Predict the structure of Glucosamine-6-phosphate deaminase.
Amino acid sequence: MKLIVTEDYAEMSLVASHHVLGYITAPRRVNLAVTAGSTPKKMYEHLTAAVKGKSFYSQVHYYNFDEIPFRGQDREGVTISNLRSLFFTPAQISEENIHPLSHENFRHHDQRLQDEGGLDLIVMGLGADGHFCGNLPNTTRFHDATVEVSIVGDMVDLVAHGEMDGDFSAVPDSYVTMGPKSVMAAKNLLLIVSGAAKAQALR
């Protein structure tokens, strides 16, 4: 494990983008699972500038590691929608290189990843409560692979305000996420953390 402490968010974003670029320049298929949210926003700006229009990055395949569907709406889920907005669309990533995780395919997700060579890198953030991917406190166990998690209790309010702009009617009964076992199966992990609110969780 290597810990890199940067001066500020801007430097963290630049360093993170350099790390990602170091992996995706390999002359073979590269499988990369990436995070949405606010923390990687600047990192994606750097990556977009580097990969947009570059055919030599066509061997890079992208995955989301969790997904929250919109109840009663025939559209893609929260995570993949945010990833398209943050990175895939601005960077002009080919649709054939984007592999969404969803309720429809999560049971086969780990086998699919294994068949496709495994994840070379997962880029993920850290919540103030210590969660990574969709592994919120008391939702998954260490031996869980990709699983479905029920949205109950306080989590309903968390999802409504954090992901649905306060629209409780759009909150589904469950979401899917790569569990700790699936995450640890990746060849490399890059955890990006910014802000005083997450300092205790990182420690």
Summary: The chain has one domain: 9-202. The helical segments are 9-24, 41-51, 78-88, 109-115, 154-163, 180-184, 199-202. The beta strands are 30-34, 60-64, 66-67, 98-99, 121-125, 146-150, 174-178, 189-192. Residues 9-24 form the longest helix (16 residues).
